[in-house]
Design goal:
mainly alpha; Helix Hairpins; 67% helix; flat; transmembrane helix; calmodulin-binding; Calmodulin-binding domain-containing protein; K_chnl_dom
Length: 506
């Protein structure tokens, strides 16, 4: 029954919509009289099939050359209808995506519950309770597959509306077909009802390389890929994002040639709340990887049957520590450990970038810091210059103004004099470095030379603007005078013409 409903819904969604030409009245009605097919309207969209109109040589009457069923064609909807239809499809697509995520998460939760109850010995895989839970997982999977097909059917309809197409097969490119097939393959994997087992042989690294042979149910290999359904979270985040749903944001993005996709939304979230995004991702990855590692390893080693040991192994692998006290035995567990290490390296790099961004001073803070450093360096420069003058005076005093020169005092003041000169040079060097590090226009504007240059340039530009206005005024007055002279010359010519005419007549 569910399959029939999904098939009927899909066929309804893929049904050819009303033609969506953006120009109303571009396709005028065909008259019932004999009209040659070569005189088709130029407003026909190139990507549309337009099945309302007969093709060349089809449905032509044998005698009169008129189309069968002639009369006025259906009126094509305008741009307002297309926008309304598009908005309704957007809302419908968002709801179907939400339902698909709910079904996917429901199947994952039931799968985890079924595996935990069977591994705890509450029931066996052959019991009626296990079969009931697996049947529930299968039903949710069938509904999920139908929702995915319906989602892509709405995508095709949106493509048809955006491109004024009338045939849904135009939108079925190889990329879209491959994407639909991949999503259906990912979401179709689930533990099927029944008890099916296989023999799993592996080399136990924790027990001196002993070969372990265990009979393992197929549910292990069919349950772990169900976590790939979590990709639906990214789709829901995209469809519920304000950047994607807000018309103004999409308009600004279109003007700046920005593609609103999942990647852009994740970048925006990493900019707005990077700590929260990283925390949620790392905790989710830690829990999922720990549970999957436990499912792979619990049949061969009792140490991995404890979830805390699996979480410990994932944590030290994620942090690139690797004590080696607990190691995976199966290739499944080793693959999960390698994937965890790679994800840990990536998350560590992201964490370093986020922390460095948080520790970096903002523009206002840099402003205040540069101003305070400039003030302190100015004070130090004045103190160093005063020390140089003081030691110069003391050296002169103890060498010229005393009756008896004390060489020890003179050397002491000479030493202090040199230290004061070195301090003065160091302060000047620090000021030069501060000016080099000032990377904003406001910081550079504190330099008196730059400020004077800016004032000079402003005065020159103002003077040029004033002179230009004066020249324009003079040109305007000159044009007015030339016009007046032309009028006077014309009047004089007419006056002489009338005088000559009058003289000739008389």
């Amino acid at each position: 029954m569910i399959v029939c409903f999904v098939a009927e819904f899909t066929s309804f969604q893929l049904r050819k919509p009303v033609s969506t030409l953006s120009i109303p009245g571009a396709m005028k009605a065909y008259s019932g009289g004999g009209r040659d097919a070569g005189g088709e309207e130029a407003g026909v969209a190139l990507v549309g099939v337009h099945s309302e109109y007969p093709r060349f040589g089809e449905e032509r009457a044998l005698g009169g050359g008129t189309y069968k069923g002639g009369g006025t064609a259906k009126h094509k909807p305008n741009i307002g209808y297309r926008l309304g239809r598009r908005k309704a499809l957007f809302e419908k697509r968002k709801r179907i995506s939400d339902y698909a995520l709910v079904m996917g998460m429901f199947g994952i939760i039931i799968m985890v519950v079924e595996n935990e109850l069977s591994s705890a010995g509450v029931y066996t895989k052959a019991s009626i309770y296990s079969q009931a839970l697996k049947t529930l997982i299968s039903m949710s999977t069938v509904i999920l597959l139908g929702l995915i097909v319906a989602y892509h059917a709405l995508e095709v309809q949106l493509f048809m509306i955006d491109n004024c197409a009338d045939d849904w097969r135009i939108a079925m490119t190889w990329q879209r077909i491959a994407q639909i097939g991949l999503e259906l393959a990912i979401c179709a994997v689930h533990p099927i009802p029944g008890q099916y087992t296989f023999t799993w042989t592996t080399k136990l690294a924790n027990k001196g390389g002993v070969i372990g042979v265990e009979v393992v149910p197929y549910d292990v290999t069919l349950s772990l890929p169900m976590f790939f359904r979590l990709y639906l979270i990214c789709r829901v985040m995209l469809l519920h994002s304000k950047l994607f749903t807000d018309a103004s944001s999409r308009s600004i993005g279109a003007l700046n040639r920005i593609n609103f996709n999942t990647r852009f939304v994740l970048k925006t979230l990493m900019t707005i709340c990077p700590g929260t995004v990283l925390l949620v991702f790392m905790v989710s990855l830690w829990i999922i990887a720990s549970w999957t590692l436990r499912q792979c390893e619990r049949f061969h080693d009792e140490e991995h049957a404890n979830l805390l040991n699996a979480m410990w192994l994932i944590a030290i692998t994620f942090l690139s520590v690797g004590f080696g006290d607990i190691v995976p035995n199966t290739y499944c567990g080793r693959g999960i450990a390698v994937s965890t290490g790679i994800m840990g390296a990536g998350c560590t790099a992201l964490l370093v970038a986020v922390v460095s961004r948080k520790l970096e001073l903002t523009r206002a803070e840099k402003h205040v810091h540069n101003f305070m450093m400039d003030t302190q360096l100015t004070k130090r420069l004045k103190n160093a210059a005063a020390n140089v003058l003081r030691e110069t005076w003391l050296i002169y005093k103890h060498t010229r103004l005393v009756k008896r020169v004390h060489p020890g005092r003179v050397r002491t003041h000479q030493r202090k004099f040199l230290l004061a000169i070195y301090a003065l040079r160091k302060v000047k060097m620090d000021q030069r470095k501060l000016m080099d590090n000032a990377n904003t226009i406001t910081d550079m504007a504190k330099d008196p030379f730059l400020l004077q240059t800016q004032n000079t340039v402003y005065e020159i530009v103002s003077d040029m603007s004033t002179r230009q206005d004066t020249i324009e005024e003079r040109l305007t007055s000159l044009e007015e005078k030339l016009t007046s002279l032309q009028v006077i010359s014309i009047i004089i010519e007419y006056f002489f013409y009338y005088l000559i005419s009058y003289a000739v007549i008389n």
